[in-house]
Write the structure tokens for this entry.
Amino acid sequence: MSGDKQADFHKRLGAKNVGALWVARRGVDLTKPAATGQPVHWAYEDLRPDILEAGAIVTAEDAFRRVLVLENPAWHGEMRVTNSLYAGIQLVRPGETAPCHRHSQTALRFVLEGSGAYTTVDGERALLSPGDFVVTPYWSWHDHINEGIEDVTWLDVLDTPMVGFFDAVFREFHNDVSQSITKPDGYSPARYGANMAPDTGGNGGRASPVFRYGFEETRAALMRLAEGQDAHPVHGHKLHYINPTDGGAATPTMDAAMRLLPKGFKGNDYRATDGLVYCAIEGAGRTIIEDQVFEFAERDVFVVPGWHRHRIDSPGGALLFSVSDRAAQQKLGLWREEFPA
Ligand SMILES: [Fe+2]
């Protein structure tokens, strides 16, 4: 067909809500992921004045969630830190309550600074301390209260873009600002914290019932691990947070891990299909993502988009938290990793 005939044909198809695949696919490389996310690094010390300024101009209750959203410049305005995840830094000041609600997105928190705040999840509360990893499962009531004297900040990561893609977003507000505490402190650790589980007769949870993973326990496990084995050439000493009811990731969509990079660690190149959000809780280091170099310090956040070659070095040693959508990708049989030579 001549160009005019083709154009006319495509126009007539378009009017019928039909497209020509050979046109849509022209010039598109489907041999590998598009990997359109951008590597990005946020220095906590740079953001801290903005976080505190947000604390001065709006209350947690007025803001509902006082969060500075970390946006990947590849998708400016879309509140995406990777193609499938949302991230932000939340501040709850002394005496404040972030009101109770629930939603179909799964959330996780990684505490950065301050102590004295509690999160309550479906009637059970947990004290938050720096380095703690906390899960807020799908559709569970949650509110955050700071009963201490320090500002408390944490990294929020949610599967919001993923749930939005499925058009399965629901949210509900609780009648009360903060929900009633219906379970004693330590309720979940008593049932699941000794590598044991109660006989519920069910098929496991939708997300880990151990919704708080304390930093001290995580740190101690990694230190013991590092005493007994050589560091992995890419990952250092790395442990994943798991759901004790099935051994899988702590949430159905997001997989989180903590790694210990020993002093003088020089990681090898690596890439995988999941876009990773990293946060250093102790120590510092450097990551080289494709050809970009980022120096990271304590509490900094950086993003390695999916299928981006990267490596991590740490001359002085570091503890590095990470989260990605690997859990969802693995359920769908899509996850792939590569150790480039
Ligand atoms: Fe929430």
